[in-house]
């Protein structure tokens, strides 16, 4: 439990606070509408469906306020920079922005379902009350109309026997906006499923922009003021005395005709702030879109990986950061995230792009068809944005784990280390780095092996052979690979990479690796960084908890994962 608290304590606390606020809002507004005297006559028409509709609405307001904030990447980068004084634990929470975004979305989906079902029942009961099916009191309340002459105001929005629930839903502001909001939400959630996001990213990207319609409908949803409450009159209307004698309303002093009014719409007050912040984000993206970007170099690797070296005036980056790229020739609306593989010390920034979808395939084909010495297609760049890898130099010891193209943030880190060695940077706090790279194909190693060879030579010349420990794992291999390796096992360099460190076949034994790191660094804080699949993330996260020691004088592992 203590190890778990070290790695997840603050995250759990934030989650508990968020859930606590949701529960408080639900319970508070449920009791408010279920027991509030101003809604006594409204409950005569609607029964318990009234609080079941209004309590989720309060929770929806709160979560709709939050849903945009985790995807305001410039805001997160600003907060990350301002949290330096607060330590790595607080900054780590910002790396879970998409996880929190999904949690909030699930809560919105759940509360929307409850809210919608309850209001559908409300419309049915409004209709039945108007038709006198629930007794004289609901019928009399339903007969009240807006009339200055009679000094009456309506409670039941159903004003005619010909108004069916379906007609009411599609002819009122609340009904129409509710339908639009619900349909937009269903499309956004279903298109966000992992299988669709991975295989049909464009579907996810375009349907997710229905959030504009969602928020527009949300702002106007309460304008119809369907749910009405009783107003204070002079003299006051005594409900307990008057509810059994509606025929005397307005005839005796104790029972003046009850007055009703719809509540002031409040949703817009909850969401206006985040909407303005997000609008500023998109405005900043447009400004960056208009800034010129030039190509320094274009390289197509044999492993179907495209390397772009780009130059943009005023562009500054840190290790492990990522940018969003837009190619107007492919789509003016689509932006895709890519981790930068260059170091901050270089006068350009680079990205490595693997062909894994329609957009990347089209970009690679466009570049392949370029004439000799031709410039690449126009490219717009938004960013850079911060990630967990920015904190790599804040740890005494770092474990870097990359899977396939997930090695890209660590290319930036290792390049930066090389420059720090070259310049003898005294600010380099990191004492040791363990680097693990898992690849399925042999040719995937080729573009990164040169950098490792340079680092290997640099650390040897400086007498820092223990500073960088790296292990490469080939996870996709057959017997021919093994036979070839056995024949050349006595060579000084690896037959695949040309490095002195031999390639391992299969997957790492993480228990063995973590135990080795713990023994070699008995009193260090170890940052474990992953850019790779979720299954590997879960495994490494468990190992960080398992091998962390509660004693502050001993080894602790902190898990960090790249999120886009």
From TrEMBL:
Gene3D superfamilies, A to Z: Nucleotide-binding domain of ferredoxin-NADP reductase (FNR) module, Translation factors
InterPro entries: Cyt_b245_heavy_chain, FAD-bd_8, FAD-bd_FR_type, Fe3_Rdtase_TM_dom, Fe_red_NAD-bd_6, FNR_nucleotide-bd, RBOH/FRE, Riboflavin_synthase-like_b-brl
The FAD-binding FR-type domain, residue ranges: 285-391
Topology versus the membrane: Multi-pass membrane protein
Organism from which the protein derives: Sinocyclocheilus anshuiensis
BP GO terms, sorted: defense response; superoxide anion generation
Membrane-spanning intervals of the chain: 12-32, 52-72, 100-121, 167-191, 203-223
Catalytic activity line of the entry: NADPH + 2 O2 = 2 superoxide + NADP(+) + H(+)
Main location: membrane
Keywords associated with the record: Heme, Iron, Membrane, Metal-binding, Oxidoreductase, Transmembrane, Transmembrane helix
An MF annotation (GO) of this entry: metal ion binding
GO cellular component: NADPH oxidase complex
SUPFAM superfamilies noted in UniProt: Ferredoxin reductase-like, C-terminal NADP-linked domain, Riboflavin synthase domain-like
Domain of life: Eukaryota
PROSITE patterns attached to this UniProt entry: FAD_FR
Subcellular location: Membrane
Entry keyword Transmembrane: yes
Protein name stated in the entry: Cytochrome b-245 heavy chain-like
